[in-house]
Design a protein that fits this description.
Blueprint: E1 5-9, H1 13-25, E2 29-33, H2 36-44, E3 50-54, H3 62-72, E4 78-82, H4 86-95, E5 100-103, H5 108-134, H6 146-158, E6 165-168, H7 175-184, E7 193-197, H8 206-211, H9 228-231, E8 236-240, H10 247-259, E9 261-262, E10 271-272, E11 276-281, H11 293-299, E12 302-305, H12 316-330, H13 340-348, H14 354-368, H15 400-418, H16 423-429, H17 434-444
Parallel strand pairs: 1-2, 1-3, 3-4, 4-5, 6-11, 6-12, 7-8, 8-11
Antiparallel strand pairs: 9-10
Helix pairs in contact: 2-3, 12-14
């Protein structure tokens, strides 16, 4: 049985307990919610594979829960359970996007079959999404520079093998895209691709996320939880920013890589897993004292380095055109051409945020630029002008004082954007008093949000 997490949303305690007992006996991890808002709250936490949803609940009924899921972009198979006016409820549920319908009372076999079918439906949805990415409907590896051609050739050689891969490079260079390309090119492509951002998970929860936990293993562990390794069984596990992983978690990951077995937190059973691990980092792990060298060498069988965008400027026009086409399709408008001068300015920019920064710029210009993108549409740091600030292009400033003011304004605006318009963080990075930074923001009438 594939490990899976099931959420039961029903206002009747007896229903939640009876269904939960059946599913737990079969090895599923089960959560429950007594009403619609609690169900939405649990769904937003992630890791729910199927939702068993009652229709008649006080305050927020099942149909309203489905509508909220749609608004939140929660693409999870829903099996509606109801004993009220079964036929009309079933029809309405399917119309609103439910995968299946189960009429009360139901037997054990019927419940388990519906759960298995819904899980398979969810797997196919994820597979179709990845196929769409591979077909170019999502992000992909783009570029014909020598460095990118070498990377694509290496991926083609490495992907069909079981070798572990370590992807290095600055933030925003596309390390996740390399990992997905390796997965798609392997014999595991029909299995799951599971991503873990090690930097985004608190240190005290990383082991639970990776290896799962048993009920009661720590405060708040009310149910058994399957970890990322188990959920990636038969597929690929992508450990992003692995350099941020705690020493204890590093030791456990090393053990799994050596033995292909793991223990859940609070558990005693050894669980066999078949997972290909691809890791990524923006650090020099070989020379970091905090990172285990034995784990580094286990992960670094093949290393693929993603160069920063500033080192492959010849790829910028193709990347920008790809993003512009994508956002234009989403907005149902014609793609906007870019002038030669503007393209030249893009090529001279340092791109501290790499491809991610270029993507964000393309999205912004798809929204605010006219029928053709000109130099004036670009941010001040690239020679353009902020329409709401009227900043001059500082290289054309008539006096030295105006040049200093304009260049300072451009620099601070770029840094604010780089650090997510967090004034405190920007001041810290610039080694400037926060009060002084606020004065300059007011002086130059700078933007403090997108």
């Amino acid at each position: 049985m594939i490990p899976a997490n099931i959420l039961i949303a029903d206002d009747e305690v007896a229903i939640r307990e009876s269904i939960g007992g059946i599913l737990r006996y079969e090895g599923y991890s089960v959560f429950d919610a007594a009403d619609g808002p609690l169900a939405i709250e649990r769904l937003r936490k992630g890791d729910v594979d199927v939702l068993l949803l009652d229709v008649k609940m006080p305050g927020m009924d099942g149909f309203e829960v489905m509508a909220q899921m749609k608004n939140d972009g929660l693409d999870i198979p829903v099996v509606v359970i109801s004993g009220h006016d079964a036929v009309s409820t079933a029809v309405e549920a399917i119309k609103r996007g439910a995968y299946d319908f189960l009429e009360k009372p139901f037997n054990k076999e019927e419940l388990l079959v519906r759960i298995q079918n819904a899980l398979e439906n969810g797997r196919l949805r994820r597979a179709n999404a990845e196929l769409s990415e591979a077909a170019g409907l999502g992000t992909e590896l783009i570029g014909q520079s020598q460095s990118m051609l070498r990377i694509k050739a290496l991926i083609e050689k490495v992907a069909p093998t079981p070798a572990r891969v370590l992807i290095t490079g600055e933030n925003g260079t596309g390390k996740e895209l390399v990992a997905r390309a390796i997965h798609r090119g392997s014999d595991r492509d029909k299995g799951p691709f599971v991503e873990v951002n090690c930097a985004a998970i608190p240190e005290d929860l990383i082991e639970s996320e990776l290896f799962g936990h048993e009920k009661g293993s720590f405060t708040g562990a009310g149910q058994r939880k399957f970890g990322k390794f188990e959920r990636a069984h038969g597929g690929t596990l992508f450990l992003d920013e692995i350099g941020d992983m705690s020493p204890t978690a590093q030791a456990k990951v090393l053990r799994v890589l050596e033995e292909n077995r793991l223990e859940r937190v609070g558990g005693n059973d050894l669980i066999t897993v078949d997972v290909r691990v691809v890791a990524a980092t923006n650090r020099d792990l070989e020379n970091e004292d905090a990172f285990r060298q034995d784990l580094y060498f286990r992960l670094n069988v093949i290393q693929i380095h993603m160069p920063p965008l500033r080192e492959r400027p010849e790829d910028i026009p193709a990347l920008f055109g790809h993003f512009m086409d994508r956002f234009s399709r989403e907005m149902k408008q014609a793609a906007k051409p870019i002038s030669e001068d503007a393209t030249s300015r893009l090529g001279r920019h340092a791109w501290p945020g790499n491809v991610r920064e270029l993507r964000n710029l393309a999205e912004r210009l798809a929204i605010v630029a006219g029928s053709q993108i000109e130099v004036a549409d670009l941010p001040p740091g690239m020679g353009g002008r902020e329409s709401d600030r009227g900043a001059i292009e500082f290289l054309d400033a008539p006096t030295f004082q105006e040049f200093k003011n304009a260049s300072e304004a451009v620099y601070i605006q770029a840094k604010l954007r780089q650090y997510g318009f967090n004034v405190s963080r920007t001041a810290e990075e610039l080694q400037m008093q926060r009060s002084n930074l606020y004065k300059k923001i007011q002086k130059y009438d700078l933007r403090t949000s997108e």
